[in-house]
């Protein structure tokens, strides 16, 4: 492996806390332990870039894994060694319970199939997570022959344990200082490598999916759902990377296991772990009828009541599962929560408690090319940093710079802020470090998109209160309002309900010239300092050139009433025409071009679902429309919800069928200013 720039930076910034992630591969499937266990050993013996030291360290790790992990069929061999030697060391997941018959704690070591192992109360009290789910540890197991002679004696006992997790106090200081050496993009890639994946094999969308998967580790009480194709590593992060997360396989859970055992008062998984992940979410079920309601209440408030007093916990809930069909088909036959259990799939109250719906279909199926060969942070160091970052917040330093649009409810805003906070902590963990506009906008867009995906499903279920899903934001006092879409329900080539960015507009040509058919067009205009109008199409259709010339002259001559005090002659406009049907000439679209010029200059969005038709001449008057019914029918066919058309077409549109009238809102304009006012979004 050749060291690249990120490797060199990391070796200096995190000396002693990095490991070559490809070293895992020779151990990953050879030994029955999670990735973070292997990395714990690799981090102890191979945290260096010196090839010779790495080789020596690998030999040590290999010996320890060979000597201390129990493969199937070797149980009796290890027990025998414990008897002969008096004690052995092994790596295993340890759980404990209170045996009320003997008033003592007993431990379970699944790899040896031992479930009544003596363990002192001091060890249990110092590591109480072994009472709920357990954790991996280096264990010294002793054998007492004298106890073995007793009736019902328990000869095996736990002499000592060493949890497989980092316990250094200054991990965050190390992280803050190390982060300073990276640019934002370098840090993103290094973070991806730290969980074992290669950023060069991932698209930006896939990277965003991965970062949001990380958010529950750094943000308290964070709830997400991720559904998508099989084999995309949805549960990998929750199972392999951190000892602070717990995977509930198959979705099966009990109220006692999740929240609190009323028999003995022991706290459940949400109290013991940072993240509880339900794998194969379609199978989620509880042993009690009110189990789902208890979980919903917990997801809302972070509290649950079992007994007299409410109990507070900060463990997040992640639910992951698979689509049996592609996302497009899933949306046609149902909605994106369709694979959820029946108690949840159509429950808008449950959906409202989900802070982010992660688009699992944006992440590739994992294969060898997705795994990195470069250096990344040792998993236990990373996991320890993440869990301590839950006590840190970045919101107070950035919220004053963000203005959310009016479509967000209180729960929407809270959800977006939690995702935003998590992403900022991942990217810029030091609370004293500045957050750039670039980073802030990146995080806001993701947070809004992933929450809007939840809102869209609520809308699809049919609740009127969720009808407004047009999420938007501004960054800074002078920022332009930007609308955020969910790509799976929006294509740039189709007319959607979302407002169009400034300068972008849908239109239909007038048709009729030389028997040219009508067709759908999209005009895209950018305004910048300079002068004149430039058509980017090469060659530009002559009829469209004429439309642009008429629009430009009307903009200059009527600038005062259209754009106020702004100097239109000190702007340079770039115009691009995109045709989506057989019609290519772009004739008869002068009004749409003019509105696009004004919109780009004013930095105003065009209303969603809108098509503008109409041709103007040099003097600003409007040409008569002779085929208004055909234009309206085409607008409906293309998915438009509103048709903005000159008043001279009103009599013709009286002949529009009742069916068509119900499918589209027809608005009339009388002049250029009237059209502009009705087209732009205020």
Structure description:
There is one protein chain. By secondary structure, the protein is of the alpha/beta class. It folds into four domains: 89 residues; 201 residues, 3-Layer(aba) Sandwich (Rossmann fold), CATH 3.40.50.300; 96 residues, no CATH class; 189 residues, 2-Layer Sandwich (Ribosomal Protein S5, domain 2), CATH 3.30.230.10. The chain is 37% helix and 19% strand. It has 27 helices and 24 strands. A seven-stranded mixed sheet has the order 20-21-19-18-22-23-24. The two termini are 56 Å apart.
Domain module tally: 4
Query: What value does the average pLDDT take?
Result: 89
In the sheet with the most strands, the strands line up as 20-21-19-18-22-23-24
Q: Compute the CA-based radius of gyration.
A: 31 Å
Poorly predicted segments? none
Helical amount? 25-40%
User: What's the shape?
Assistant: elongated
Q: Quickly give the CATH architecture of the largest domain.
A: 3-Layer(aba) Sandwich
Range of strand content: 15-25%
**CATH C-level of the largest domain:** Alpha Beta
Could you tell me how far the N terminus lies from the C terminus, measured between alpha carbons in angstroms?
A: 56 Å
The DSSP helix count reads 27
How many runs of DSSP E, i.e. beta strands? 24
CATH-assigned homologous superfamily of the largest domain:
P-loop containing nucleotide triphosphate hydrolases
Secondary-structure-based class equals alpha/beta
